[in-house]
UniProtKB/TrEMBL annotation:
This is Universal stress protein UspE. Belongs to the universal stress protein A family. Signal peptide: none annotated. It is found in: Cytoplasm. Required for resistance to DNA-damaging agents. One of its GO terms (cellular component) is cytoplasm. Keywords: Cytoplasm. The keyword Cytoplasm applies. SUPFAM superfamilies: Adenine nucleotide alpha hydrolases-like. InterPro entries: UspA. Residues 4-147, 176-300 form the UspA domain. NCBIfam families: PRK11175.1.
């Protein structure tokens, strides 16, 4: 986490507390030099529909709203006046927040996006894709989704890996996740844990193949994952007690393990599906977020 020196904080215009800003300051404090940009995309359709006003008057009205929000953001920086962190404020008028955020990431060359997240209702998640999900799929840099829980010194950091794939890209992503988790754990004097979920034996195989023994199959799959997880443990100098291997879906296993280890931060990778596959299947990261009571740092594969 030492590399995050240009941090973009997505502000919540309706929240009294801004946990994302607090967390970004905590991350920046770990750097030798860091800057934080408070970013707020705003839009009110009613301003565009004011037919009685001229375009100039509507522009002036929008500018007035933007200036008002900028003044509000300045008040949030009062507690950090003595900080060595460099702060900037940017408010933009944009009807699609996630597009505005991603554009700012590219224009400002930010290396981390920090945003608070809220639990999504099932029907909302299905019909309206939240900004969080768009960021997970399309952000060119890591995304830290924050909940209102601190990172205590000496706590636990949980790295979620996928050992079931022989894909070189997945292996590289696993290494990236663990390396990043190890760095965060070191900075926080925390303990690093690894979790991996292995698949449940397919029921249809037992029904369609008379000679198929699900117990033998399950033992072989578990052994394969144990071996892969152990290799990562050796590579990153982790003790066996820090390894967690459970049968089941990753979106169920990871939150359960986070609770069991009392993790203050979960770090995982996301391949960022888009299109129809994202609408139908989603990503493991997306399914995990709402089930966790702690922060989530989502990393993308290296290009």
């Amino acid at each position: 986490m030492i590399k995050y020196q240009h941090i973009l904080v997505v502000m919540d215009p309706v929240a009294e507390n801004q946990p994302a800003l607090h967390r970004a300051v905590s991350v920046a404090a770990l750097q030798e030099q860091a800057d934080i940009t408070l970013f707020l995309p705003i839009y009110d359709f009613s301003y565009e529909m004011t037919s009685m006003l001229s375009s100039t008057e509507r522009d002036e009205m929008r500018e007035g709203v933007i200036q008002s929000q900028e003044e509000w953001l300045k008040t949030l920086l009062t507690p950090y006046e003595d900080s060595k962190i460099r702060f900037a404020i940017k408010v933009v008028w944009h009807s699609r927040p996630f597009e505005a955020i991603i554009q700012q990431v590219q224009d400002g060359q930010h290396d981390l996006v920090v945003k608070s997240t809220h639990k999504h209702a099932l029907i909302q998640s299905f019909i309206f894709t939240p900004t969080d999900w768009h960021l997970l799929r399309k952000s060119p840099c890591p995304v830290l989704l924050v909940k209102e829980r601190d990172w205590p010194m000496g706590g636990n950091v949980l790295a979620a890996v996928n050992c079931c794939s022989d894909d070189k890209g997945q292996e590289a992503l696993n290494n990236k996740v663990i390396a990043e988790s190890a760095e965060v754990a070191r900075l926080l004097s925390a303990s690093l844990h690894l979790v991996n979920a292995y698949p449940i034996t397919p029921t249809n195989m037992a029904l369609e193949l008379p000679d198929f023994d699900p117990h033998v199959y399950n033992a072989a799959v578990k052994k394969h994952h144990e071996r892969a997880l152990y290799e990562y443990a050796v590579r990153f100098d982790l003790e066996s007690k820090a390894l967690h291997l459970e049968e089941g879906l990753a979106e169920e296993v990871i939150p359960r393990c986070a609770d069991a280890t009392n993790a203050s931060l979960v770090i995982l990778g996301s391949v960022g599906r888009t299109g129809l596959s994202a609408a139908l299947l989603g990503n493991t990261a997306e399914h995990v977020i709402d089930k966790l009571s702690c922060d989530v740092l989502v990393l993308r594969p290296d290009v």
